[in-house]
Write a structure and sequence with these properties.
The chain has 140 residues and is an alpha+beta fold. It has one domain (2-139): 2-Layer Sandwich (Tetrahydropterin Synthase, Chain A), CATH 3.30.479. It is 28% helix and 33% strand. The protein has a 5-stranded mixed β-sheet with strand order 3-1-2-4-5. It binds nickel (II) ion.
Length: 140
């Protein structure tokens, strides 16, 4: 029996919406107060959608402690309490929820095959909340 699981995580981080391809005035016109040079913070949340067979011995479809350790190492410790604009992926791209979701998915897909404890668990989607109203979802 294959089941679908969700696992949710969160991290606080700051960002400034600012495109290096635009000048100050264009950035202000496009992003408004989100282009403020001092930035602002969010309590980001993200959810992973997983799919896998239920193990007949453990009754589980995923080794959640192993998943949590991988997510801590690959995602949370990278982004927690940072200014996203200072991180290499966002030096040239705007740290929007869309670009953050792309980066999180990229990091997870890279790390996934090296985690034998995840066995037959497949990553299906990543969904990130910047705020209650601003959500981005990507299929793996
Ligand atoms: Ni923001």
């Amino acid at each position: 029996m294959t089941v679908h699981l969700g696992r949710r995580y969160g991290f606080p981080a700051a960002h400034r919406l600012y495109s290096h391809l635009l000048d100050e005035e264009q950035n202000r016109a496009l992003f408004g107060k989100c282009a403020n040079p001092y930035g602002h913070g969010h309590n980001y949340e993200f959810e992973l959608d997983l799919r896998g067979p239920v193990d007949p011995v453990t009754g589980r479809a995923a080794d959640l402690p192993a998943l949590d350790a991988m997510v801590e190492r690959e995602i949370l410790s990278v982004f927690r309490h940072t200014n996203l604009n200072d991180l290499p992926p966002f030096r040239e791209t705007v740290p929007t929820t869309e670009n953050l979701a792309v980066e999180v998915l990229k990091l997870l897909k890279k790390a996934w095959p090296a985690e034998p404890a995840l066995g037959q668990v497949v990553l299906e989607k990543v969904r990130i909340w910047e705020t209650e109203r601003n959500i981005c979802e990507l299929s793996a």
